[in-house]
């Protein structure tokens, strides 16, 4: 299955060599004998789907966790990386997926945190500011040293993280899913930085599950699946389908069987809807239609969802669900009108992790006959419904009374999907439905959403996964800075057109900026 | 109505606000390090009790002071051990510390002094009042500022030191980082647990001082549960002062004034029970007052 | 998940039993150390404690009588726990409830007993619940932490009640030194149900209330809504539950039950409100601890409450016979909470020790 690289090795030993790495977390084996070889000065991609062990492997290299077994050698010398500090001492620094920045501190403080310049025992602010400026000039990564991190853009945050790695003297940079929060254009900017670092002789390890960018930026690739290495590849000699096969173990289908249906009556109508983070959103979702919302995270999508759900108060405009004005209505009134909601953060809004599976399946219908009459719950009816949903949505749980926290992410999401799709509500709001869950569960969730659309529901799909939006939606709206700045039929949408809109560049100016 | 505001009232405010201030500064460190600490009350109570025990055993008020600080620090370490090492629920552990403090001090008081309720011996010499030369001769100001125990003056110095430590010292930076985002701090090689232990130790020491100010400074005596909610009032001072040393100083002064007024009104026309309520009522009102403004930003 | 040598249910049972034994051993150890510091024999102390708590019919009855306010307060604490709230104000709510009950019973003493008794209890419950509402409201409206305000309100409630029984409501007839109210009508006092002891009819409440509260949380929609608000308020809101309302309801319920605990002491033990009698024995705190020990399972509180009551009564007996201060019970209680707070960690430790891999 795996095609080992046939490239001749140079005389210098590899900059990173990990052998037989094993890591267990309680019962689950995260890494089971993983080998990794990275050559000096290359861009090495680690790919695999969620839960394959990519981050765990890199956390071991960065000194955040310790392997149960296995050896690490740097430049041919065996080493023990016992802590983050010792990783830094070996010239290894990691830029995390969730930025490890402190928003109440300044850029200069963040840059130097953990290795502060001092003068007479106290923090030397001037030296810290100078460090930001010097490093920024050297690598062409300019960030205002005096700004509070809370006020920075996502791109700036990432630049600061990379600067910090360089401040710590990193020769080996680990980037964990660095493009997940960027527009395609911002990602190009990041790639320029990576090439710059490469010219400077630095080694970059790049974690990703997006194959296009892996093919674009990396020199070689290690593929992980379920804690095993399933392939070691030279980028120039491989193709996306080959990598995908190694990642998943079978062919991946990102095409859905989507019958053409003429949309019916509107089930959601927003007119000039305004609220915190959202400005004058006007759009409709009709029956038998999936409307996708694309956009870089933080451009008002979450707030729009909360406004529609009634979790945030609107300041102007109207929301109608199934023709009824629900602008002022409570969450429960909206639900009764015919609204289901798959929230973006399933552990924050979608579940009570310490509650039972059965409790979690009851939410929203806890006052609905026959499950509940005159304020009394019918435990038998509730149990029957739970068993039925567990079966039909293939939720893997020991019993309905098990705590939701004992389930995997994919199964937890199945609980949410089961609960929200069970009652054939005419309008379904779905946010980030496949975030952080495995491919099998993702496919299941997408198919269920499509099924409901085919059965007559209208769906508003908010997702940061562009390919998900493109493949599922009938129409796509793009949000930028709280506004809906463009609409495309799914058939005409591609990553470039959407990407420009996501960066706030409207259609008219597209041609001019394309060359940039 | 007699004149409430006079020099003596201000002097007694200074005395009475010191325990609140010190406990609040202690709690500020744990709060900045991300630990919700409801055990201030219990730590103070240990300080109060062992301060008296130290004086009783050695006759030296300063050894009493040292024992107060030591005992409160040990208790703080127990709190830290269960919260930081075992990741127990800080609220429950904190309440357990308070219950332990009340039980153990009363238990030990009976063993050592053979009494219940309270222990008072007029022969025990507490911390001396320090007369500041020159300033003590200035009318009014001298009466307010001079003639307090060393703890009172230390408290003011500690406010300054705490400020410098938190905002100018690298370890203070680490402390704030750990409180805001322990994961991020850890990923930068900051020893999260070590920093949290440091905050707990600082908290214990300051609570020990606070307890000593109650028991071996104003009068030398120990009364069962004599902290009487001061740890919780200190908690409010932290919230009111947004965990900032100088603002906490202001908040504590306010509560000290309530205590002083309560003491002053004792025996007046108003029934003692209502007078005794004053600090608690003031605290609750302040607490609500501080939250009135943010409310408007989150419209309903 | 498949290759387990022992079935998971049995493993959990063994682990939990061992954890419980470790907890008990630790509690004993703390007690033994405290006794040893006092220069006494831990064995004798333990024997005296057992004797004092359960040695005779009278002692057993005393332990059960003592458990009544503890268990009821434990149930009260649990109601708040279920909504995710730490109600540290049980003491004040109990005091206000008890005083209200005593005043109500005397004010309407001409009513027939079968009406007066339930109305007295209702009045006490309403007053206790009402005293718990402001902190709930402040938390909901101003985000003022209820944990702090409920605690501070105890001092206010105690001083307020103390003022009332010292002045306007004081029984001046007997010339008693203790500030107290007039005695309540004889007709509504609880009878003794065990000859020669002080065990009164209020004991039925320690069975009834836990069952009622268990039923409420498992079988009613309101109970479900309160539970979900406690487990994850964001989730509850998303599901259409008014979490603020749940905080108010749960706190009212919690305060009401604490009020009942207070009035039962009035009806069954003191027959009047006496300044300080509900505060000194720390019924509310023991109840709070009983609830923590029982992991907020109302039925288990019957057991933990009885245990804590026996500990306190036994310690009092021990003090009489050995001069070891009875506050040792509080020390042991605190030690148990420490262990309970980290029982999950102990569980993990035991599991790793017994079933490596």
Give a short overview.
The complex is a heterotrimer of chains A (516), B (300) and C (357). Chain B has 300 residues and is mainly α. Chain B has helices at residues 7-32, 40-58, 61-85, 90-113, 141-145, 150-168, 170-180, 182-187, 192-215, 230-240, 245-265, 272-297, and strands at residues 118-120, 221-223.
CATH class of chain B: Mainly Alpha
Regarding CATH, which class of chain C? Mainly Alpha
How much helix is in the residues of chain B? over 70%
Class derived from helix and strand content of chain B: mainly alpha
Tell me, rounded to a whole number, the average pLDDT of chain B. 91
Question: What is the mean predicted local confidence, pLDDT of chain C?
Answer: 91
What's the main sheet of chain B like? 2 strands, antiparallel
- Strand content of chain C is under 5%
- Strands across the major sheet of chain B, in which order? 1-2
Q: How big is the Rg of chain C?
A: 22 Å
CATH architecture field of chain C: Orthogonal Bundle
Helix content of chain C: over 70%
Largest sheet of chain C: none
The low-confidence runs of chain B, each spanning 5 or more residues with pLDDT under 50, are 294-300
Our measurement of the CA-to-CA distance between the termini of chain C, rounded to an integer number of angstroms, reads: 12 Å
CATH topology of chain B: ABC transporter involved in vitamin B12 uptake, BtuC
Q: Which value, in Å, is the CA radius of gyration of chain B? A: 19 Å
* Total tally of structural domains of chain B: 1
Overall 3D geometry of chain C?
globular
Q: Which residue ranges of chain C are poorly predicted, with pLDDT under 50 across at least 5 consecutive positions?
A: none
Structure description:
The complex is a heterotrimer of chains A (516), B (300) and C (357). With 516 residues, chain A is an alpha/beta fold. In chain A, 33% of the residues lie in helices and 25% in strands. Chain A is built from 18 helices and 24 strands. In chain A, the strands form 6 sheets. A 6-stranded mixed sheet of chain A has the order 6-9-10-3-11-12, with helices on both faces. Chain A has a 6-stranded mixed sheet with strand order 18-21-22-15-23-24, sandwiched between helices. Chain A has a 4-stranded antiparallel sheet with strand order 2-1-4-5, covered by helices on one side. In chain A, strand 11 (220-225) and strand 12 (228-234) form a beta hairpin. Chain B has one domain: ABC transporter involved in vitamin B12 uptake, BtuC (Orthogonal Bundle), CATH 1.10.3470. Helix content of chain B is 72%, strand content 2%. Chain B contains 12 helices and 2 strands, in the order ααααβαααααβααα. In chain B, helix 1 (7-32) packs antiparallel against helix 9 (192-215) and helix 10 (230-240) packs parallel to helix 12 (272-297). The N and C termini of chain B lie far apart (44 Å). The relative contact order of chain B is 0.20. Chain C has 357 residues and is mostly helical. Chain C is built from 14 helices and no strands. Classes of the chains: A alpha/beta (516), B mainly alpha (300), C mainly alpha (357).
